[in-house]
Design goal:
Porin; about 230 residues; mainly beta
């Protein structure tokens, strides 16, 4: 099942649970949300691409081919009140993107293609806004900011694209927005969620040649990602 289909299913589930009337049922983990602190972990998938802005309009944009990546991390949750929680979700994401550069001076196919493999350490600080709990279900929206450290950035490499090396900046600042639904099971709380991650800073390390066919016309390059996470608390 691809990531888009799972996103649609999650959105459909959140919408259906928001409709009424709903019959009263036996509640699992009745006092779970009364705790000041709670902890957990998450597993998930991601799909990343890039948003390019150019110095001058070009006929063909740089193409980004995405693939599914993997996320894993921890969750620390601070209860503010019945509807608001503050969350810290440090984790690691494995990402692969393939770039195709359309510059006509790049004759060989190997010169036009760059495989960009990234390993991000993500540290999001999020605010979670929940609805009233309905039996064993509680939908929510979440938003906040995050800092990412790209361990595979090659920022300090002396080689650039002319030597076959694509380079990015190591530190990235993002904002994040998402939705999800808490499901209270018999022994634990299970939370599927979908979240968008959007870089706020330029990540590109430019080539030494200011007229480089790879980076010369790029004014900014920013990551955009979709996370599908499954949290266990």
């Amino acid at each position: 099942m691809n990531l888009r289909l799972m996103v649609i299913l999650l959105l459909t589930g959140c919408f259906s649970y928001s409709q009424g009337p709903i019959k009263e049922r036996i509640r699992n983990l009745e006092n779970f949300d009364k705790k000041r602190w709670s902890w957990g972990y998450y597993l998930g998938m991601n799909s990343y691409d890039y948003k390019f802005d150019y110095e001058e309009v070009q006929e063909v944009d740089i193409q980004t081919e995405t693939s599914l990546g993997f996320n894993v991390g921890l969750v620390g949750d601070l209860r503010i009140n019945d509807y608001i929680n503050l969350r810290l979700e440090p984790g690691i994401s494995f990402v692969t993107r393939n770039l195709t550069f359309p510059d006509p001076t790049l004759i060989e196919e190997s010169d036009r293609l760059r495989e960009v493999t990234s390993t991000y350490i993500n540290v999001p600080l999020l605010v979670k806004f929940s609805t009233k709990r309905l039996n064993n279900v509680k939908p929510f929206v979440v938003g906040g900011v995050s800092w990412s450290r790209n361990l595979s950035s090659n920022e300090d490499s002396p080689d650039d694209n002319l030597a076959g090396q694509f380079r990015q900046k190591s530190d990235v600042f993002n904002y994040e927005l998402g939705i999800g639904i808490d499901l209270y099971l018999f022994f634990f709380k299970f939370t599927p969620s979908i979240r968008g991650v959007f870089a706020m800073t330029d990540e590109l390390v430019r080539d030494a040649d200011p007229d480089s066919p790879y980076t010369g016309n790029i004014s900014s390059m920013q990551s955009r990602g979709v996370f599908l996470n499954f949290t266990f608390q």
